[in-house]
Amino acid sequence: MPGAMVVLHRVGPDAQGPIDSMRTDAAGRYRFRYRATGDSSAVYFVSTSRGGVSYFTPPTREAMVRGGTSEIMVFDTTSAAIPIVVRGRHVIITAPDSATGTKRTVIEAFELSNDSTVTRVARGSEGVTFDAALPPGVSVVTAGQGDISADAITAADGRVRVNAPLAPGLKQITFSYEVPVSTEPLELLVERPVGVLEVLVEDAGAVVDGAGLLVTDPVQIESRPFKRFMAQDAPAAQAIRITIPPRASAGNLRVMLIVTAVGAAMLLGLGMVFAKRGPGALRRARVDDPESLALEVAALDTAFERLAEPSEQQRAEHYLARARLKGRLSAALAKRDELR
Fold first, then answer.
1. For the chain, how many helices (H) and strands (E)?
2. Which of 47-61, 158-172, 197-211 has the lowest mean pLDDT?
3. Residue 205 sits in a domain of what CATH number?
4. Fewer C-beta within 10 Å: the chain N or C terminus?
C-alpha cells in the first residue's frame, strides 16, 4: 500500500510511545533505523491504520527485523453483512457461588472466522459485527480475555453484541454472565453452524442434550473437575438444554482463570484438553496497558527461546499465549491512540 503512514513504537518499563514515523514508498515498503535506548527489556513494533482500523507487527527486540515479522497486512473495510463463521463455541458452567449459593457463572467463548478479504466494520455507533442470543433474563455480560476490546462487547435486548472491526482471519471473544441456580433447564440457542461445540459443567451429575452433543472424557480447570460434552459441525437453529441436580455451594470460582483456560483450548485445536498455564495466566484482563502487555510478550518469547527442543505441546502453548497477548496489545494500543 503506497503512501501509508507507519509509526514505530517503543514500549518499556522506563518509557513508552511513538519514536518515529514515515510513509511507505511506491511499493508499500518502509524502513526505520533507530538506536535501542533505555531499559534492555523494551520492545519495538510498527503500526498503521486503514479505514479507521489499526494493524500491527509483532513486538520485537531484535537488532534486524525484516520479512514476515515486519510485514503489516491491511484490508479494505465494509459494513456489508459478510459472513462471520463460528469455528468454535465453548460454554463453561460453574458450581454455585459460595457467597449466596443462588447463582452460577456461565462463561462463553467464540472463535470467529472472517473468511473474506475485507475487514467487517459496524454500520454506525449502534451497529454490530457479531451478535448472539443470551439465555432469557440475562441483561449484563462481563467481557473476558480475547482479541477484542472489552468496551466493544455489550448486552442489549437479550443478545451479546460486538461492535469492533473483524479483520480476515480468526478472532476470539470471551464473556461471562450469571444465571440463577433455579434455572432448570438452562437453555442456550445455537443460531449459526458451529465447527466445534463444547460444553463444560462443574457437576458430575449434569445432563446436556441437543445440538448433537455427546459426553466425553472430563477435564480439570484449575484443579476443578468439569463434565465435558462435545459436538462436531453442529447445525444452526438448535437448542442446548443443561440440567444440573441441586448441590451444595462449591466455593467461589475465580472466573478469569476459567476464561484463560477457555482461550487456551480454542487455540489448541478447539477441543484439546485444557493446557496448564503458568503464573502469567493469573493476571486479570483489566491490567491491559500497552507497556505491561508488550513486556509480557517479550518475556514469553525469551522463555520460549531458552527451550532447546520444544515439544509440540510447548509450541502450541507458546503460540496460544502469544496470540492472545498480541490481540490484547492491539486493542489496548488502539484504545489509547484512538485509532479505532
1. 3, 19
2. 47-61
3. 2.60.40
4. N
